[in-house]
TrEMBL record:
NCBIfam families: PRK00230.1, pyrF. This is Orotidine 5'-phosphate decarboxylase. The gene is pyrF. One of its GO terms (molecular function) is orotidine-5'-phosphate decarboxylase activity. It comes from Lottiidibacillus patelloidae. One of its GO terms (biological process) is 'de novo' UMP biosynthetic process.
Amino acid sequence: MNKPLIVALDFPSSNEALSLVSQLEIYHPFVKVGMELYYKEGPAIIEELKMKNCNIFLDLKLHDIPNTVKQAMKQLARLEVDLVNVHAAGGKVMMEAALEGLEAGSRVGRKRPKCIAVTQLTSTTENMLTEELLIHSSMETTIKLYAALAKESGLDGVVCSALEVPSIKEVCGNNFLAITPGIRNSEDNNHDQHRIVSPVQANRLGSDVIVVGRSITGAKDPHSAYLRMKSEWEGLL
Ligand SMILES: O=c1ccn([C@@H]2O[C@H](COP(=O)(O)O)[C@@H](O)[C@H]2O)c(=O)[nH]1
């Protein structure tokens, strides 16, 4: 994986998602299918996106008992996407089970999809961590621990804010992927995101991949918004 920008296709149906993809088709975009679109369209949307030569992150954030996650991952492996994920909060046995399921469901001779773990959602603040989730370590410590647990479980990386990437790389090494949503430029609406950085900062902080949704999909001109984000992320602007 080089330094991709993944576009979050957070749309209610395939019509809107495919229309956005058609505007970016010449760039063979890496796209993310999340719960909203997948729960509406199911595996058919994955097939349609593959026909358009998109790389795909299927972002369903599995979090359940180990056996359920293993069996679910076995099914997801059959979709042959590039990237899937779980919540690190499910623990080591659950993350190991996710990998077992992916191995079991992947065709012989084909590499399993990469699997990453959500550490703490980018919509979570330090205050929420203490007051609501009753986690009494700092955001940075919590995320470092979750990342180390994901690595010990054999996962390929984590989802985090770019703000935490330097400490994750320190603990888990440079090859452990840091995939970072919560990307905004200063003029963008932050919506429900809290731990946010610009594409330029994400690059400087060492993110491997950025995930951008509404700043592109909700822009008046998504094509220009994509190109600007991409150039800033790649350090060209
Ligand atoms: O911690 C997380 C994990 C996943 N996401 C997902 O990324 C996109 C971000 O969309 P924006 O519109 O750019 O805010 C969205 O699909 C989330 O489900 C995240 O934001 N934070």
